[in-house]
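Why Hexosyltransferase? Reviewers of the renewal asked for a concrete example.
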Amino acid sequence: MHSYSSLSLILTPLLLITTTDTTTTATTTATASLNFKEAPKFYNSPKCPSAHDDQCFGSVIHVAMTLDAAYLRGSMAAILSVLQHSTCPENIRFHFISTHITYNQLNIYISTSFPYLRFTIYRFDDTAVMGLISTSIRSALDSPLNYARNYLADLLPTCVKKVVYLDSDLVLVDDIANLSASLGDDNVNKVIAAPEYCNANFTSYFTPTFWSNPSLSVIFSDRNACYFNTGVMVIDLVKWREGDYTTKIIEWMELQKRMRIYELGSLPPFLLEFAGKIAPVDHRWNQHGLGGDNFEGLCRDLHPGPVSLLHWSGKGKPWVRIDGNRACPLDALWAPYDLLQTSDVLDS
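Here is what the prediction returned.
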């Protein structure tokens, strides 16, 4: 095991881990052909605080991501992009959450491609949410791992006060420290910071059943509720724990099972709790929707304005389109971060 990596088994009733031979066999089959290159080592600039082995040290930037077989290639690209554009890459600690990939397999992939990475692997029990998930418009949105972000405050050590959560289908082209700083001391009452989009049709995220029920729709009556994408968030874990937001999100999911109040996966419970209450972040930090819609995944252009993070949310993933010789123009911006050994990126 690499000296900077560790495995955390969260032994609480909610997050108890069980491993079966069936899961291990399926995972081995899904990942057997993957062969990733080793990324270069990235060093702190002279102005950085000293890198510290203690993950509770104040200068550490914490990044949380989920990992699974289907998105592992995207995750590796995202990690590389974070390190490559960071001024202080040695001060970043990664927290990876997985359900289906065993520790030994995942540790080998990460440690081989990023030998100097400081990271912890948390194995998340998907049975914690299986009974709470309602079907949505695309089956990939129903993956239990999409709901792991609800449990970050339980999974991560209590000394971790703030974390940047990132999806696996994105790359950064800017310093993640700037994103992390968007939830600072001046946001004393904010639990989450994220780009918000008030031009989106907010009502479409909830069903007529929700809007026609005054006891439910009243929740938005005193706030300017806008859509935000939960694939890029900065979360104050101290305030999250104090507000017991994991329980509150679970309660919305339980209500959804009794009476369908929303349509789109893991996003609406976050909107119910936080829409209109977040610290807004510049849109440059989530140029989202590059994967097209959730049905066809057609090519899309960038939104107007500067770019710090490109996010292939939607059905179309750049590695899938590249391998299928049907890459979209913007997929060329993801390709330089692809560490898959056998890929001839965009050559065709």
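The two ends are 38 Å apart (CA to CA). This is the kind of structural detail the renewal will allow us to pursue systematically.
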